[in-house]
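@channel anyone free to eyeball this complex?
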Amino acid sequence: MPDDFPVDFAPGEELLWWQRDRMHFPRPISPMMHALVPTEGINDAFKHYGLPLRSLNRRFNTYHYRTTAPTLSSPEEIGAAQQAAGKAVEADAVRIGALWYEELLPQVLEHIAWFESLDLEQASASQLEQYAAETVRRHRALWGIHFRTVMPTQTSVELFEDFYKETLEPADEFEALSLLEGFDNLTLQANRQLWLLAREAPPAVHDVIAREDPGRILAELATTPGGDEFLARFRSFLQQFGQRGGDQFIEISDPYLIEDPTPLLKNLQDYARHPERDWDTDRARIATQRDSLTAAARERLASYPAPVREQFETLLKAARDAIVIAEDHGFYIDSMSTYKVRQVLLACGRHLAARGCLKRAEDVFMLSVDELRAALKDPSADCNSMAAARHAEIAHFANVTPPEAIGTPNPAARPGPGKDRFFGTAPEPSGDPHLLMGAAGSPGKVTAKARLLRGLSHGSTLQPGEVLVAETTSPIWTPLFASAAAVVTETGGILSHCAVVAREYRIPAVVGVPGAMTSIRDGQMLEVDGNAGTVRLLEQ
Amino acid sequence: MQPALAGSPAVVSPSVVWLGESASSNPHLVGGKAAHLSRLANGYRVPPAFCLTTKALDAWDATAFPTTLADEIETAFQRLVALTGDENPWLAVRSSAADEDGDGASFAGQLETVLGVRGLAAVLAAIEHCRASATAERVLEYRRAQGLAGAAPMAVLVQALVAADVALVAFSANPVTGARDEVVINASWGLGESIVSGATTPDSFTVRTEGRVERRLGAKERMTIIVPGGTREVPVPRTLRELPALYDVQALEVARLARRLEAEKGWPVDIECAYRGRELYLLQCRPITSLGGR
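replying in thread with the prediction:
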C-alpha cells in the first residue's frame, strides 16, 4: 500500500480484490454518493438472473472500490449457475425492446412521477425524513432496473456481432456495428435540440452566443432583442434535457446542467460558430450507409436456410434496440432519477442548514443516508464539524493518486466478457514510449493536437479540430464530439458510451488507454488510429 | 417455336420430357438417374425437373447449340421456373447416363453435376458443360475399363434445387442394429452435402414405430449453402448449433415417408430429403446397402 493511501481493512476485507471503476467514479466520492452507490441494485439483478455473484463496495480514502465475490463454492456449481444465468440473460437480450419499452421503462417513469409529485418546499422535517426513506427505496429499485437493463443490452449487441462474424466474416470489427448506427437516442436528441436552438436563433441572439464568454451569454441575452424568447426556449430545453449530471456519470453532489448550464452554453457556442455543420444531413448520411450495409448483408444471406435469416433479423432488431436503450436508460435512471434524488437531499439539506445543523444545504452530501435520517429526526443534531472534516478529507485525497486495485489479487474475479467490451481490458504495452495502446473505439485515422480535459468545465479550452483527451466521457460530454477531431479516453471498450457515440459522430476514437492523461502533453501532436486502437505521440 | 403457355400440359417431344411423365421412366431416353427419380416423382414430392433426352443430345452436332433445341430448353426452363413458385430459382443440372444403373453409383464422380444454376444463360452453359464431360478423356478411359464402348449415351436433367433450410438422411431400419421398428434420421442445417461429406455432425433422431422420438443433438458446426455455380460450406452460428434442426413433428413426418417408401419398394430404404419452409422434398431413395445386426 502506498504511504499516502493508508487503508484499514476490516477483518477479511484484505482477502478480496478491490478495484476502482474509473469510468464512473474517477474522483473522490462524497459520503452520500457512497451510501447511494447502487451495489444493492447490482445484486438484485444478479439474483434475478441467478448469477452466482455478489458485488461489494467500499469507500477507501474517499475513493470508490468494488469487488465481486462468488456466492457458491465449487467450480462445478459456479459453472452450472453461470451457464443457466447466461441463458436467462440471452433470453432477455433477444427481446430487449419489449423488455424495456413494455416492462421496465413504465416502472422507471412511475418512479420519476413520484419524485415530481413531491412538494419539497413545504415539507416538514418528518415529511422530509419519510421522503428520504422512500427516496432510498426507490433509488434502489431504479438501479435494480438499471442493471437488469444493461446486462441484456450488452448481450444483445454481442449476440448480433458474434452471429455476424460467424456467418459473414467481416473485414473488421466495426462492420457489424455499422448496421446498428444512425438511430436516435435521448443523448443524441438532446444534442440535436441544442443544435436546433443555435440554428434557429435570430441574428442578434446568434451573435451573442457566438461571441460572448459562455459564462456571460445568459446575462447578455436578457438585454438582447429576441433574447427573452430564446431564454424561454433554452429553459424549456433545460427542463427536458438538463436533468443530467455534471462531469461524471452519477456524482450526486455535483451540480446538474439544469443548475449550471455553462457546459451547454459552450456547446451552443460551438454550434453557433459552425453553421456549416448540418446535424440532420450528417445523421441522414449515417442512416443511408447503415441501410446499404444492411441490404448487402441480407443479400449475402439470401440463400441461407430460413432459420439463419430469421435469427439475423431477430438479433439485428435486438441489437439496434439495445444501442438506443443503452443511452436512454442512462438518461432516465443514471441522470434524471439521480437528479430527483439530489433534489430531495438538497431539500433536506436546506432544512438542516436553516436549523444550523449544517452550514450550507450542499453539506448534506457529506452525510450518509443513515446520518441524514438521524439528523432529521433529532432537532438538536449538529453535523457541522463532521461535514467540515469530510470536506477536508476529500480535498486532501483529490490530490492523491489512488491505486488501481488493493487487497489480494484475484485475476479470476472478473466480470464476464460482456463487461470487457464495455469497460475494456488492459492492453499489452507496446514497448515504445511514443506508442500508446488502447482499444479500437471508432474507425479512422487523424493527426491533430491533443487537448487534455480534466473536467467538462474545461470544455471551453477544446478548439475545433483538436483531439479530446479525457479520463472518461459521460453522455453530456458528447456535444464536444461535434468539434473534436478524435477522442481518446483512459477507460472503456468498444461498447462504452464514448465509443458508441464517437461512431455516431464519425470521429476516430481510441478508448481504454491506460495513462493517457499522464503520457500525453496538452498541445502535443498525436496520430490517433481508431482502427488499430493506438495513439502515437509525435514530436512537437 | 412452341408458345410457352404457363400451366399448360407439357408438349410431348423426344427432346424434352418431364419427371413423372411416362416417357421419363425409360432409362434409354433419360438415363438411369432421371428414370429412377421420375418413378419417385410419381407419388412423392420430388423437386420438379425436365430432361434433355439422349435423342436430343445425340442429334446435337459438335459446336453450337441447335436453335430448335435452345428454344425448347427455354420453354421448358420457363415452365420449370413457374413450377417452383420462385421468381429466380436455383437449379441443378445433372448428367444422367443411359447405361448407369438406377442409383448412379457406378458412375459416381465421373459425370458432371452443376449446382447453383440460376437463369437461362447459366442453364445452357451448364448443359454444355455436362455434355462435354461425357466425352472427357477420363470418362472414356473409365468406360473402356468397364468394357463399355465409346462415350456414354447421355441425357441431362435440369431440376429445381431446393435451397434447403434443413437436409436429412433417413433409414427406415436402424442401419447399425438392423432393428426394423426404428427410423433413424440425421439432420442438419442447409444442404445435405455437409452431412454426406461428414463435414458436420448432424442431429440424430430415432423414431420408433409407436411414434416416440428420441433426439440427440449434434454439433452441427457447418452447413452448405448455394452460391452461383455451386455450393459453399460455411460455419453455423452458435445460436443455431444449439437448436435442434428438426421439430419432433417433422421427424415423425420423415419417418412416415420412409416407411411408406419401404412398404412400396419392399425393402428398407435410405432416403435423402430437404425441408424448405413447411415443405418436405424427397431427393433420393436407395436400398440400405448393408443392414447390421442380423
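from a first look: Residues 333 and 458 of chain A are 26 Å apart (CA to CA).
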